[in-house]
Design brief:
By secondary structure, this protein is an alpha/beta fold. It folds into 2 domains: 153 residues, 2-Layer Sandwich (D-Amino Acid Oxidase, Chain A, domain 2); 174 residues, Rossmann fold (3-Layer(aba) Sandwich). 30% of the residues lie in helices and 24% in strands. Strands 1, 6, 7, 8, 11, 12, 13, 14 and 15 form a 9-stranded mixed β-sheet that branches. A 6-stranded mixed β-sheet has the order 2-3-10-4-5-9, covered by helices on one side. Helix 2 runs parallel beside helix 3, helix 2 crosses helix 4 and helix 3 packs parallel to helix 6. It is elongated, with a radius of gyration of 21 Å. The structure holds flavin-adenine dinucleotide (FAD). The site of flavin-adenine dinucleotide (FAD) has 39 residues, from strand 1, helix 2, helix 3, strand 5 and strand 11.
């Protein structure tokens, strides 16, 4: 498909004018109407208005990163079966339903009967708990924080397993690929407004031809409609743009829905910290699934876990914007950029600060994220 940039922008304006009122009139999809929950390729690629006035919050979260990748592993702990499922880095939302299925497999294979204690109520814990319930297990969640107060609530959450390990070429690569494929299939079953999962166009922007990072090349078929566009073939002010379709998840809606499903299926939730392994040993359940994310550093002594701080500047929701951008060519020279338009706000990222523990937003990062996105979208609006 080739379409010149002037025409892209014109079409975008027309589709926003025509499509937006139509979307509002729809029913069953919340305030956006149903059109947002299906593919809408290219329909509303128009510049995002960036203004400090529109900022509604600035937040930061810590990605639970392990250079060697996530852990899904069973061990014996006292008389219990302990199955770990943690350390997903920047791809924890994406992979959650895959590693949850893998952890549930390990529980089934070990043959230990009885109830399960799931530690943690982020994307990983909730997926693990609900999948175990479907296997007929009685499950209790023990968690220090529940949604909306987990790291998972901060996630973007683009379906794309990025920043998951330093190297995907070794044996971890196969585990990574399996988790990604299981998760991709599982999230597809949840597409729609109830779980807040939808398909959306992603544009990766660059001044140079885009290479293929390993996390993408291993699972290229999970990024449908892949096309590399140049110059006037796309509407952005960068030389190159890669368009792929991914799923996109609304964490507040999705996590709430999972917690609801868990409770409807008879699950119990106990809010509080598991302070140490003695407390763990005292739980009545014979099976424990550890989904504590970064919490596994203290609770299980995994010193290889390192936080990667990510900061987001969130603008008020802008319903006419229906595509993601990642990168920004010459506009992103001073750091990484991404724009994710969610119904609870347009997320502008981002930062990837390895080893930084603080959750305090950094005003300099806010300035950079706003200024770089403003430059990118102003240049897009100005046209060729
Ligand atoms: C800015 C940002 C953007 C991101 N974007 C994306 C994205 O686009 N796509 C994507 O896939 N991922 C993204 N991520 C990564 C994603 O957020 C994480 O990988 C994911 O949330 C990890 O989920 P989790 O359930 O393991 O951890 P968490 O959400 O942190 O949940 C851990 C749970 O364990 C509990 N817990 C911890 N310790 C204890 C204890 N001792 N006792 C009791 N309970 C305990 C916590 O209270 C919580 O309930 C992003 C992250 C950030 C910060």
């Amino acid at each position: 498909m080739t379409i010149d940039r002037r025409r892209w922008l014109k079409l975008a304006g027309a589709s926003v004018a025509a499509g937006w009122s139509g979307a509002c009139a729809g029913s069953g999809g919340g305030r956006f109407g149903p059109s947002l929950w299906g593919p809408d390729a290219g329909a509303s690629v128009r510049p995002v208005p960036i203004s400090r006035d529109s900022v509604i919050r600035v937040v930061a979260g810590l990605r639970p990163y392990r250079p060697n990748g996530f852990v899904v592993r069973a061990e014996r702990f006292g008389g219990k079966l302990l199955v770990h499922n943690y350390g997903h880095g920047g791809g924890g939302f994406t992979l959650s339903r895959g590693t949850a299925a893998m952890a549930a497999e390990q529980v089934a294979e070990a043959g230990t009967e009885g109830a399960v204690a799931v530690l943690g109520a982020g994307a990983v814990g909730l997926a693990t708990a609900t999948i175990l319930q479907r296997q007929g297990r009685r499950v209790t969640i023990y968690a220090r924080e529940l949604p909306p107060d987990t790291t998972s609530n901060i996630a973007g959450a683009q379906w794309s397993p990025t920043t998951v390990a330093d190297d995907l070429s070794g044996p971890f690569g196969d585990q990574f690929e399996r988790a990604a494929r299981l998760a991709h299939r599982s999230f597809q079953r949840l597409v729609g407004p109830d779980y807040g999962v939808r398909w959306i166009d992603n544009y990766f922007l660059s001044e140079r031809p885009l290479g293929e990072p390993e996390y993408m090349s291993r699972i290229r078929d999970l990024y449908p409609e892949w096309e590399d566009l140049e110059g006037d073939e796309h509407p952005f002010p960068t030389r190159h743009a890669r368009r792929v379709a991914t799923m996109f998840i609304e964490p507040p809606r999705y996590l709430r829905a999972l917690l609801r499903d868990f409770r409807v299926a008879g699950g119990k939730v106990v809010v509080g910290e598991i302070a140490d392994r003695r407390q763990l040993a005292a739980l009545s359940e014979p099976v424990v699934a550890n989904c504590t994310g970064l919490g596994s550093r203290e609770l299980f002594g995994d010193r290889s876990l390192v936080p990667i701080k990510g900061q987001l500047v969130v603008l008020r929701p802008q319903p006419g914007i229906d595509y993601l951008t990642v990168g920004g060519g010459r506009f992103s020279e001073s750091g990484s950029l991404y724009m994710f338009p969610r119904s609870d706000g347009v997320l502008l990222g981002g930062t990837f600060q390895r080893g930084v523990e603080s959750l305090d937003p950094d005003p300099a990062a806010t300035d950079r994220i706003l200024a770089s996105h403003a430059a990118l979208f102003d240049a897009m609006a100005a046209g060729p």
